[in-house]
Amino acid sequence: MNTLNFSDNIVRLRHKKKITQEQLAEFIGVTKASVSKWENRQSLPDILLLPELASFFDVSIDELIGYQPQLSREQIKKLYHELASAFAEQPFEEVMNESQELVKKYYSCYTFLFYIGCLWVNHFMLAESKIRQEEILNQISDLCSHIIDDCKDIGICNNAVILKSIADLQLGRIEEVIEKLEEILNPNSMTPDSVLIQAYQIRGQKEKADSFTQISMYSHLIALIAGAANFIAIHADNIDICEATVLRMDSLFEAYGIEKLNPNAALQFYYQSAIVYCQHNKIEEALERLEKYSACVKILLEDALFLHGDSYFDSIEASFEQLDLGRHAPRDKKIITDSAVEVFSNPVFAVLNDSEKFQRIRKSLFE
């Protein structure tokens, strides 16, 4: 309990109540020397005295011993970004151990546990061996199962199902992923966006209607880009479908300024399209895509390591600030850079190794 600030809390609560050590000792039925030892971290009270002490000071036992089972949104955000930075600078296992201790400490703070799972998903690949990576993926899956089984917040539980599926997919549990996600994801289900927007308008809350509309449009726009990347991966054997998709997405990117609005979404699509072009031996097209990919990485690192709007999406900044982890990227700049460089090691790009342009693009990222 010393690590939970019991001693400091006893001093603080006694001063607040304006009583002496003798008066507290008399009420509890111990000696003044016992109270003095509690306050000087020399000993701890019998566990049976805790309810009586808590009752005397009119606080919960958790408050008495300094235990906080729940964290605020700001505390979660701070811990997440501190750990993400630590993964980029400190030995991987040291940071993993620190995060695992925090899981034990806040095992009933399900929002925090979910974001620790996100943290591990974003960094498990830094583990030295494949076996260790699989161990961490299993820990993520188990942590999400705990959230799903015990948390009463439907939103957090659904997010945990998706996060668990990401880990399980990496572990090859395909059937389990399909079964779980089919339960909560229905492409034909109604979305409440338009209904809420209309309600705001009827109520005369134009600013809320505008802000929520922009967030809805932005979210669907980014989802469309991610869907397009998946679409060309599914149809990689059909170059006509892939090129038609690339043509449409290029028009969309230009219309909405996607490379600056959300360079991370753009680079994911450029990467996938470069892979498809290489598979069909379209060298120039693949190099063009990789050049665009590299440019987006640089934009991401220089100007856009946080979510933001632009002159068109001019009412979404406040919504980003309200996100549990804030607007900042879920991974440190160094890890983002290392991941971008690693992309060029994909065996599919081996056909480009003799290209001076390919080597120049690759070198520019190293620099």
Please explain how this structure is put together.
The protein is mostly helical and 367 residues long. It has three domains: 2-65, 434 Repressor (Amino-terminal Domain) (Orthogonal Bundle); 73-184, Alpha Horseshoe (Serine Threonine Protein Phosphatase 5, Tetratricopeptide repeat); 193-366. Helices cover 71% and strands 0% of the residues. It is built from 20 helices and no strands. It has helices at residues 6-17, 21-28, 32-39, 50-57, 61-65, 73-89, 92-105, 110-123, 130-150, 154-170, 174-184, 193-202, 206-234, 239-256, 258-261, 263-279, 283-303, 317-321, 333-343, 356-366. Helix 8 runs parallel beside helix 10 and helix 14 (239-256) runs antiparallel to helix 16 (263-279). The longest helix has 29 residues, at 206-234. It is elongated. The model has no long low-confidence stretch (mean pLDDT 90).
Structural topology:
Elements: H1 6-17, H2 21-28, H3 32-39, H4 50-57, H5 61-65, H6 73-89, H7 92-105, H8 110-123, H9 130-150, H10 154-170, H11 174-184, H12 193-202, H13 206-234, H14 239-256, H15 258-261, H16 263-279, H17 283-303, H18 317-321, H19 333-343, H20 356-366
Helix pairs in contact: 2-3, 6-7, 6-8, 8-9, 8-10, 9-10, 10-11, 12-13, 13-14, 13-16, 14-16, 16-17, 17-20
